[in-house]
# Entry
Amino acid sequence: MEETPEGTPVGVDDPYAVAGRCDHLTDDGRCRYALEHAGDDPEFAAERRADDYACVVADTEAAAVADAEPDWSRCPHYRSTTDAKACARCGLEEVRVAHDSDARPLVEEHHLSYGSAGGRGAGGDGADADEPAHEITVGLCRWCHTKVHRSFARVDDDASPDPEALAVRETRRGEEQSEMGFRSASERREE
# Structure
């Protein structure tokens, strides 16, 4: 299983198996990185420009094999980050309390890739193990996040939300409802 630099597990053997669509991929199959960050990697941008900015991975592999998941590790600028709205392991949904800036989020960003990920990151050439790999994150609730880092729990386990997590979520929903609560004119008239 992949590990953090501190040696704790991240909950997956292959981060690319859990990773989603590239953040740089547009709806029409073009590479936004080559369009917006051409100065960061001019050679990559020139190659994409020559191919009408088509994604290195998505067009070639998805078209070749129907229903196959693209091999994102082949792209040197692949990035898949989460919106952290729900836990990828147990499905617990985030509930934010707007007025409480000290409230810790229920769902946190969890990094799946550290280092070169077995030579597949940073362009897939495995050049330098200390080079950062592709940024791959998923959302995990605080309780699943702890289980993944402190045990052998996996991100893709079939798990249910922790009872404490459900209690915190319902408390937040109650606070949210009380803040939004109002009585309609018809309710006030009946009283």
About this structure: Strands lie at 79-80, 107-111, 135-141. Residues 15-22+74-190 form one domain. The first strand starts at residue 79 and ends at 80. The helical segments are 15-18, 32-36, 42-50, 58-64, 142-150, 163-180, 185-190.
